[in-house]
Design brief:
Largest sheet: 7 strands, parallel
Low-confidence stretches: none
Distance between the termini: 8 Å
Number of strands: 13
Structural class: alpha/beta
Order of helices and strands: EHEHEHEHEHEHEHEHEHEHEHEHEHHH
Helix content: 40-55%
Shape: globular
Mean pLDDT: 94
Radius of gyration: 20 Å
Strand order of the largest sheet: 3-2-1-4-5-6-7
CATH topology of the largest domain: Rossmann fold
Number of helices: 15
CATH class of the largest domain: Alpha Beta
CATH architecture of the largest domain: 3-Layer(aba) Sandwich
Length: 366
């Protein structure tokens, strides 16, 4: 069975690398990996960490690229591959523009589509943007929807999906996390050589498109307040900064030059996993971190008003705090000063899977 695995961004690569390896280890499967390089450097780091063999590289990233540019180039690139080679399946992951366009190209060529991480919903088409629309559209044309949880399966059934199209697999992010934790721990980033040992470490990621502008300014202002405090109430903010200029401008305005704000370049996945292990708590607007951190026993304050991963909220390992400065500071202060509140969120219970999602996906294709 010949399967084209498409990935274009760092999160896609993290979650699809275990699938590519599971396919490659199956005697009756012939996987081919296509990189679109919607994100270039951040994608390549993951490919190196997980030693993924690449067969096609569209290398489409350009400075200042738009979502339309990416969609058109992926459509053309994947279509050209499907025109030359016969595939039984095209596998896409999540909710990126790469995944939507690749799925559309497969649909046009009448190649079956498998959607890894199907059924996630916020029920607001602009939060997150454009991801909420992308995943709904991919689900609509997928021949198999690999739902990570029972809740995501139910979302699809509520939308009148035929039950035989939907399979609960767990999330492949947990497969990737398990693989990463088996690797030797890399050295910490050199920028952390002066990290204070008497201050709790707060790991931050913030890059959502819908937060650009005033919401991002509010997040950065809250981080600056937390990093500037003394007398036992301050924290060390560790922030691998996303390369998007909208993010960098807000970071430069509020955090550059602060002693306890450690601004890093984007990190490879393995280094980031071990930073999560080291952190006291995590502030993030990332979807993947809401899945990974519970397995490490780390509370996550979600810098969004809605999440498509309500399982983490229900399990008590994540809390929605939005982008309001006061709300962020109050939530961090509570976890720093109330040991019981911290323990309630820090219990390692992961609702997103057992690390065997990739195997279930291969078996479903078989």
């Amino acid at each position: 069975m010949k399967v084209l695995v498409v990935m274009g961004t760092r999160p896609e690569a993290i979650k699809m690398a275990p699938v590519a390896h599971a396919l490659a280890s199956a005697a009756d499967m012939e996987p081919r990996v296509c990189l679109t390089a919607q994100h270039r450097d951040m994608l390549d780091d993951v490919i190196r960490v997980f030693d993924v063999r690449v067969h096609h590289d569209l290398d489409l990233m350009t400075p200042g690229q738009t979502l339309t540019h990416v969609a058109v180039k992926v459509l053309e690139g994947v279509d050209a591959i499907l025109a030359k080679e016969k595939f039984d399946w095209v596998l896409v992951q999540g909710d990126t523009t790469t995944s939507l366009a690749a799925a559309q190209a497969a649909f046009h060529r009448e190649v079956r589509v498998g959607h890894v991480e199907a059924g996630l919903r916020t029920w607001n088409i602009r939060e997150p943007f454009p991801e909420e629309w992308n995943r709904r559209a991919i689900d609509a044309l997928a021949d198999l929807a690999f739902a990570p949880t029972e809740q995501s399966k139910q979302n699809l059934l509520d939308e009148k999906f035929a039950p035989e199209r939907v399979l609960v697999t767990g999330n492949t992010a947990i497969d990737a996390l398990h693989l990463a934790l088996e690797r030797p721990e890399p050295p910490p980033p050199p920028e952390l050589k002066n990290l204070a040992t008497d201050r709790p470490m707060v790991l931050v990621t913030a890059h959502r498109r819908e937060s650009f502008g005033a919401p991002m300014e509010s997040i950065m202002s809250a981080l600056a307040e937390l990093a500037s405090r003394s007398n036992g109430t301050g924290v060390s903010v560790v922030y691998p900064v996303h390369p998007n200029p909208n993010v960098r401008a807000a970071v430069a305005k509020h955090l550059e030059g602060l002693e306890h704000a450690h601004l890093l370049k984007p990190l490879d996945y393995l280094t980031f996993v071990h930073l999560m292990k080291r952190a006291h708590l995590i502030l993030s607007d990332s979807g993947g971190i809401q899945e990974e951190a519970p397995g490490l026993g780390k509370p996550v304050l979600v810098l969004r008003d809605r999440t498509e991963r309500p399982e983490a909220i229900t399990a008590g390992t994540a809390m929605l705090v939005g982008t309001d400065r006061t709300r962020i500071i109050e939530a961090v202060d509570r976890l720093l000063t109330d040991p019981e509140a911290y323990r309630a969120m820090a219990v390692a219970r992961n609702p997103f899977g057992d690390g065997h999602a990739s195997e279930r996906i291969v078996e479903a294709l078989r």
